[in-house]
Design goal:
Layout (H helix, E strand, L loop, with lengths): L1 E5 L5 E5 L2 H12 E3 L6 E3 L5 E5 L6
Antiparallel strand pairs: 1-2, 1-5, 3-4
């Protein structure tokens, strides 16, 4: 299991089974595309990290 978390606050933004899904989530949710050109504005509230965590077995 992987978690997208804030580096400063530790806030968990997204959780997924695969690291690639976390990267995709960041790209889809934290990037704003300008309609007038190819410029991309990245709007991230804080530095993000992707952490690997062990799943708890029930």
């Amino acid at each position: 299991m992987y978690v997208v978390a804030g580096l400063n606050t530790g806030t968990e933004y997204y959780r997924a089974k695969y690291q690639s899904r976390c990267i995709r989530w960041i790209n889809e949710n934290m990037a704003k595309h300008n309609t007038g050109g190819d410029n991309i504005k990245v709007d991230i509230p804080e530095p993000l990290i992707i952490k690997h965590i062990k799943e708890k077995k029930s």
